[in-house]
TrEMBL record:
It comes from Cyclotella atomus. NCBIfam families: YggS family pyridoxal phosphate-dependent enzyme. Belongs to the pyridoxal phosphate-binding protein YggS/PROSC family. The modification N6-(pyridoxal phosphate)lysine is found at K95. This is Pyridoxal phosphate homeostasis protein. Residues 87-294 form the Alanine racemase N-terminal domain. Keywords: Pyridoxal phosphate. One of its GO terms (molecular function) is pyridoxal phosphate binding. Pyridoxal 5'-phosphate (PLP)-binding protein, which may be involved in intracellular homeostatic regulation of pyridoxal 5'-phosphate (PLP), the active form of vitamin B6. The keyword rRNA processing does not apply.
Length: 303
């Protein structure tokens, strides 16, 4: 199928969806819960069948059922641990996946999506509706910060979850400044500080402990257009102490920001361990393969 026909198919899907948007509604969340956490549609209907062929594995996926299952598991974990309803956000990690699978997820009421590659996020955001909130969750080269913010926009870029250097923060702050000037807005860009809780050299992030507070103070002083909303980590599989370390780091962050620790979000937990992360205090879980199936990295760079 040609690219033009693909886009036409996706556009038709959104046209039908927008026409029947009243079929979807988010839960009413209390004022104590951050906006945009878990969205549950009042009723779910697959509004149009996506016929574009992707791969045999993708063709057998039931995105609606997968998301419903993940949401139920999140709710069960929230209830079991005495957490408030709606206190955990589901970010559907759609990296390397074709647009039609995101459409299927969108049709269930999912609005928060995570991408690892700047170019892929920039491409997808132009094809998806404006009410999608994008989370960048991969390593971001500082020279890509400007184009990412400019293309996606502060109105759709919910958070850069992987900030661990003042250099990147400064580039993002400048990009936010330029976007605001062009848009005539005064918005801030949300960021999380990435912490390397596992100590693995292959993983990015600031070291736990005093370095967290020191970096936060520098960013707060020098980057007024960045809102430090929480911390993020990619834990080591099976080592759940990484979650405990991030919780402790939140205390350091709260002191640096003069905030209550509970005001800061914790982005931790993925497909294999998000329920444990919720038990440890996660407010933002990044679930990919459980929803979209295994990924193909063969054609993607690390940018």
């Amino acid at each position: 199928m040609t690219i033009g026909l693909r886009r036409a198919t996706v556009a038709l899907s959104f046209a039908i969806l927008n026409h029947r948007s009243s079929a979807f509604a988010p839960l009413s969340l209390s004022s104590r819960v951050p906006r945009g956490l878990i969205y549950f549609p009042v009723q779910t209907k697959h509004l149009t069948k996506i016929t574009m062929s992707t791969s045999a594995a993708d063709d057998t996926l039931d995105i609606s059922s997968n998301i419903a299952s993940v949401r139920q598991r999140i709710q069960d974990a929230v209830t079991c641990n005495g957490r408030p309803d709606g206190s955990v956000r589901l970010v559907a990690v759609s990296k390397t996946k074709p647009l039609e699978l995101l459409v299927a997820a969108y049709e269930t009421g999912q609005r928060h999506f995570g991408e690892n590659y700047a170019q892929e996020l920039m491409s997808k955001c132009t094809e998806m509706p404006d009410d999608v909130s994008w989370h960048f969750i991969g390593p971001l080269q500082s020279n890509k910060a400007g184009s990412l913010v400019k293309t996606v926009g502060l109105n759709k870029l919910a958070c850069i979850e992987t900030v661990s250097t003042l250099k990147l923060a400064s580039k993002l702050n400048r990009a936010a400044e330029l976007w605001n000037e062009e848009a005539g807005e005064q918005k801030k860009l949300g960021i999380y500080i990435q912490v390397n809780t596992s100590g693995e050299e292959s993983k990015s992030g600031v070291n736990p402990g005093s370095e967290v507070g020191e970096l936060i103070k520098k960013i707060s002083d020098e980057c007024p257009l960045l809102s430090i909303d929480g911390l993020m980590t990619i834990g080591s599989p099976g080592d759940y102490s990484c979650f405990d370390i991030l919780v402790k780091c939140r205390e350091e962050a709260a002191v640096a920001l003069n905030k209550d620790p509970n005001e800061l979000e914790l982005s931790m937990g993925m497909s294999g361990d998000f329920e444990i992360a919720i038990a440890k205090g996660a407010t933002n879980v990044r679930v990919g393969s459980t929803i979209f199936g295994n990924r193909d990295y063969s054609s993607h760079s690390t940018a």
